[in-house]
Amino acid sequence: MAGSRAAIRYAKALLNLAKDNQADEAVNNDMLEIAQAINDSKELAIFLQSPVVKSSVKNASLKEIFPKASAHTHGIFDVLVANKRIDLLEDVAHKYVFLFDTMKGNEVARVTTAVPLTADLEKKVSAKVKELTGKEVALENIVDETILGGFILRVGDMQYNASIANQLSKLKREFSIS
Questions:
Q1: Same domain as 77, residue 153
Q2: Theoretical Cys-Cys bridge with 163: which of 27, 45, 147, 153, CB 3.0 to 4.6 Å?
Q3: CATH number of the domain within which 171 lies
Q4: Residue (of 71, 147, 75, 65) closest to 110 by Cα position
């Protein structure tokens, strides 16, 4: 929890600095790339979390991995290393993207399903979310077989759980109370 609060503080500070220098779009692209790279590379995630690797090596490595990143992005590497918080980089990247999208009025709806959404179903879900929120949203489909079927829709702080796993859990609670 403390790490998450710290990550949001770093992300807000970075967004404010980037916005003041008209670099917020470039930094957003960097943060998307960083979050994706850390998510895709287990080795990179372990490397950043490792207490054995020196912070200076982590900083130099990040600048080698992301050479085209903006000066602001390289600056956040320096700040996180100086404060011994480089392990928060992925979280900072996610928080920055979220704050940037919120600032721009873009919202991401996360739809968790047991199988990937079809194009037709994606259009229907987008239309329903727009009807409910009044905002244009981008859909992110997360596949999770453990929900068995149905879907879980999350937009901002609203969540609608129509998964079969949730319905079975409700039934289980009802029967255990009786």
A1: no
A2: 147
A3: 3.30.910
A4: 147
State the residue range of the domain holding 83. Answer: 2-103
10, exposed or middle or buried, with CB in 10 Å at 0-12, 13-18, 19+?
buried
pLDDT tens digits for range 104-159: 877 778 888 888 888 888 888 888 788 877 777 888 888 888 888 888 888 877 88
Return d(Cα 111, Cα 154) in angstroms, integer.
Answer: 6
Helix (H) or strand (E) holding 160: strand 158-163
pLDDT of residue 3: 63
Domain end call among 103, 125, 152:
103
Whether residues 80 and 45 fall in one domain: yes
Q: Where are the alpha helices (DSSP H) in 41-161?
A: 42-49, 55-65, 71-82, 89-104, 119-133
Instruction: Describe the crossing of helices 2-20 and 71-82 by its angle, rounded to 10 degrees.
Output: 150
Cα of 120 vs its chain's centroid, Å? 25
Q: Starting from the edge strand earliest in sequence, which strands make up the sheet with 137-143, in order?
A: 137-143, 107-113, 150-155, 158-163
Quote the CA–CA distance of 107 and 99 in Å, as a whole number: 10
The DSSP 8-state label assigned to residue 87 in this structure reads G
